[in-house]
Amino acid sequence: MKKLVNDPTHVVNEMIEGIVLLNPALKILKGQNVIVRSDCRDEDVLEKVALISGGGSGHEPSHAGFVGKGMLSAAVLGDVFSSPTTAQIINCIRYVAGKKGVLLIVKSYTGDMINFGIAAKMAIAEGIPVETVIVDDDVALIEKGEDVVKRGLAGTLFVHKIAGALAESGADLQEVANIARKVALSLGTLGVGLSPCIIPSVGHPHFTLPDDEIELGLGIHGEPGVQRTKIKNVDSLVTDMIDRILKSPRFHHSGDFKGKRIALIVNNLGGTTAMEIALVARRAIFLLNEKGFVIDRVYNGPLMTALDMQGVSLTLLSIENDHLVSLLDFPTIATGWPKSISQRPYKSLEETFAQEMDLLKENKIPLLQSKNVPPEVSEILKQIIQAISKTLIENSDYLTELDGKVGDGDLGENLKKASLEVLSALPNYPVSDVASTLHSLSLTLQTSLGGTSGPIYSIFCLQIAQKLTSSVKEGKDLDRKLWSESLKYGVQGIQDLGGAKLNDCTLLDALIPSIDSLCDSLVKDLPLKEAIKLASISAEKGANSTIDMIPKKGRASNLGERARGLIDPGAKAVHLIFKALEDV
User: Fold this and answer.
1) What distance, in Å, lies between the first and last C-alpha atoms of the chain?
2) CA distances from 261 to 89, 135, 251, 297 (A)
């Protein structure tokens, strides 16, 4: 287990200190695991209803991240995945309670309900007005019957936000409590876990999960879900999750959701990448729109987590009127609440596109021109492009493996993707004009080839096209001498772009000697097939020479001596390209 902690037994106390050190709008209630608004004892604040929530730690930013003007007055934090004590809760109530009393927002877990419940009774006995709202938004357990206690999950945050806004606006305790309960009964949440989580003091997960399986309907305490199933693609998984939420009694409308208003939370359970969350949100929004819902607001991010668990939960909130939306939009300084745009999301993919400009369309860009070549030359040009593309596709796994040893492991896949795009675009290339074809190829590579390779291959083709065009305009013939000059001009473009040179352990260590060899053969008027063969030999020697080099450019340069003994993947790709041209 690798965790950035000191003593695991002190992790919660030190976390609380860190949270407050980062946010001067918060204070620690001394001697308690309680975080309060720094202004909670100001006279104007004490005129309003105070909101308290909390629970076990490990769900950050819940609940401390939602303490602040416009949301919670305080959060009471237990140990990791453990309820806070009654003593901590009652002391918190005593500290933040004003004239209008306190609303406790409690997730439906036995420990939380008991400890908050006892503290509420104690506070009431002391004359402090207290109302309690229990949030049980988990839909995973509905199929098990009414007697099963449903858990409180990320839907709790909607209650925090709406009740907090109402309290901040000056409403009395009963009004805030009533709307909070109404919101709690309008929620549905379902989570899915791709991995277990690890509690720092335990050091190992509570359950194991094979690589090809997921836990559907799990809670937020590292416990297993209600169903284990094979992993699906993200669209299928999100569809299943949304359908299960909509089957719950709180959302069931005989399948007719047209015009029904909702808000959505896409919650990262802690260890899921932002890329995956975006894919989940994409499918959820598309699907809900397809079903006829009006999505008033969407929120996403790590909001109620389970430490480092890989997974996501989806929460739907039924929206009755514009007043609820205004409360969601009500300003808050709580750092955990996502600063999202206060408007509805797009209804379709078409709406997401910016207005097109003709100049941005590849087929509208004026191409460089040299002169038309005979049909047999055009055919050879097509065969060259096809041969290069096919060999890069066939060797993508090999190049990715090489790149994984010295870089970020994306070279093979990037070249494969670009090659497929090139083959798709090739029928539309003006192959009767070499410069126009190379310019078209450069434009395709600009849009399809990611990473460093994109600009390198693109500028190589563009520079050759520019040299051919300018030279023909000057009255030069499209002969071997001009081809030699143009190829070298292409190489120079790469060097000018990245600053690399021979022996820097880059693709230039294969490209420079191979182009030099090819140009020398062209000037000597050797047969093209022999010229390509010699260039291929030079490319192979150049690529192999990188094995003994220490990289000076690119990501591999970060490895220093550790890269010695490994071939540069870009240089190897150049060799594979020339090897493929031997058969054209």
Assistant:
1) 54
2) 36, 21, 11, 9
pLDDT digits (tens, 9 = 90+) for 231-240: 999 999 999 9
Number of CB atoms found within 10 A of residue 352's CB: 9
Q: Is pLDDT at 557 greater than 70 in this prediction?
A: no
Sign of CA dihedral 114, 119, 122, 128: negative
Q: In what order do the strands lie in the sheet with 34-37?
A: 26-28, 34-37, 74-80, 50-57, 102-107, 130-135
Q: How many CB atoms lie within 10 A of CB 364?
A: 10
The pTM of the full predicted model, rounded to 2 decimals, is 0.78
SS3 call for 295: strand
Looking at per-residue pLDDT, the higher value among 385 and 199 belongs to 385
Structure tokens at 130: 């207290």
Measured CA angle at 149 (ends 144, 155), to 5 deg: 105
User: For residues 543 and 571, is the Cβ–Cβ distance under 8 A?
Assistant: yes
Looking at the chain, the whole-number percentage of residues with pLDDT higher than 70 is 95
* Most distant CA pair in the chain, distance: 103
* Of the candidates 86, 104, 89, 92, the residue with the CA atom closest to the CA atom of residue 41: 92
Residue 262 has pLDDT above 70, yes or no: yes
pLDDT: which is higher, 215 or 51: 51
Cβ contact 524:518 at 8 Å: no
Q: What is the mean pLDDT of the chain?
A: 91
* pLDDT 10s digits, 73-115: 999 999 999 999 999 999 999 999 999 999 999 999 999 999 9
What local confidence, expressed as pLDDT, does residue 146 receive? 52
Cα 285 from Cα 32, distance rounded (Å): 42
Task: Kindly write down the DSSP assignment for every residue of 382-424, as one continuous string.
Answer: HHHHHHHHHHHHHTHHHHHHHHHHHS-S-HHHHHHHHHHHHHH
**221 included as an active-site residue:** yes
Contacts of 30 (CB under 8 A, 6+ apart): none
Measured N-to-C along each axis, helices 569-581 and 508-523 cross at an angle, to the nearest 10 degrees, of 30
| Strand-strand pairing, 213-216 and 26-28 | unpaired
**Is the pLDDT at 564 greater than 90, yes or no?**
no
Contact call for residues 436 and 369 (beta carbons, < 8 A): yes
pLDDT band, residue 558 (cuts 50/70/90):
low
Q: What gap in Å lies between CA 195 and CA 205, rounded to an integer? A: 9
Cα(537)–Cα(514) distance, integer angstroms? 8
Q: What's the one-letter identity of residue 374?
A: P
Which of 47-51, 281-285, 298-302, 362-366 is predicted with the least confidence, judged by mean pLDDT? 362-366
| Sequential DSSP letters for 230-281 | E---HHHHHHHHHHHHHTSTTT-STT--TT-EEEEEEEE-BS--HHHHHHHH
- In the β-sheet with 227-230, what is the strand arrangement from edge to edge? 227-230, 213-216, 187-193, 311-319, 261-268, 294-301
User: What is the CA angle 113-115-119, rounded to 5?
Assistant: 110
Catalytically annotated residue among 63, 221, 439, 575: 221
